[in-house]
Amino acid sequence: SRSSAASDVYKRQDLLMLIRNRLSRIFFLRSFFDYPVKLNKTTFANLGLGRIAKIGFSYLHTKLFPIKQEKSLEDFFINRFGDELYRTFFKDYTEKVWGVPCSEIKPEWGAQRIKGLSITKAIVHAIKNIVKKDTSISQKGVETSLIEQFLYPKLGPGQMWETVADIIKNKGGEIHMQQKVVGLTADGDRIKEISVRNEKTGEVKVYTGDYFFSTMPIKELMRAFTHEIPPEVLQVSEGLVYRDFITVGLLLERLKIKNETKIKTINNLIPDNWIYIQERDVKLGRLQIFNNWSPYLVEDENKVWIGLEYFCNEGDELWSKSDVEFARFAIDELAKIDIIEKDKVLDSNVVRMPKTYPAYFGTYDNLHVLRLSLIHI
Predict the structure, then answer these.
(1) What is the per-residue pLDDT across 295-318, written as a single tens digit (0 to 9) for each?
(2) How far apart are CA 232 and CA 219, in angstroms?
(3) Which positions ≥6 away from 32 have C-beta within 8 Å?
(4) Which of 187, 205, 250, 274 holds its CA 20 to 30 A away from the CA of 108?
(5) What are phi and psi of 288, to 5 degrees?
(6) Bridge-partner residues for 128, per DSSP?
């Protein structure tokens, strides 16, 4: 706890990075599991000795007889965690995220997202923490999935970009919102001008410049070129796959699920930042507790502000629901797995984000063809 004077300083000063303790857990079988999964008494109690034994034997078998050539994300997971642990904690959730079987996803996804994490490294990390815990902010040498604290903007990640925008404006730059690039004109190996449509008025303006930086999805970037794109290049860009994303924000009087950890929180709220929803009877993928990211994101500390994350494809059944329908659907799912009570919901908000995650399938393997074409426009 901090003094009232220090608290006043925090309230007045918004440009702060808070040191946050990281806690992400898995919700499976209506119980919480540590993430990364730990072989502790909680895991043993939730899974039972029979399943634990299967996980142990499966892991040993993998260490003795690993898959020599990893051809899919499924192979990647099995080589690091064993077949039983993969099927218990990784398979269903990953397929929720991507909408395709793990056997159809390239192993590069695992190398990029999970990097060097394995059971062995998780055990070594746990032993190191017993001897000497790394309390530094940098936590150099710690696998990304094992990091236990981080810096977080007082008013959320959007605050960083608002601050960057202010700096640009203060230095004489301009920022135009709600604009869409609809045309790219090349001159040799350079972009010489872009056509931009105002999404509010429909007006199209042409901008020239010495340099242009694109953050567009590659598929949309290639579609914006005004000159003809070679068929083999267009085939690659059109074959790139993206996963879309919907967040449902819910303001609650309280959660139904209780804090059974030893971590002290305001109003004894569960201490998680993220909760990975492994339950197979709901489509919900992940849950955020915004109070735990920063208490300043919630005006009334007696209320709970959460975000329900759904992975989908633009135009599918989930995406096509109206905001009202989707909020009701999300509330029903969260009540079904006993995390909230429906009558404690005070307000809701639905945010859709297309092309959130580029996928490691489709024509991803041929991305080099497209890269070369952009170098030689």
Answers:
(1) 999 999 999 999 999 999 999 999
(2) 14
(3) 25, 26, 42, 46, 260, 275
(4) 274
(5) -110, 145
(6) none
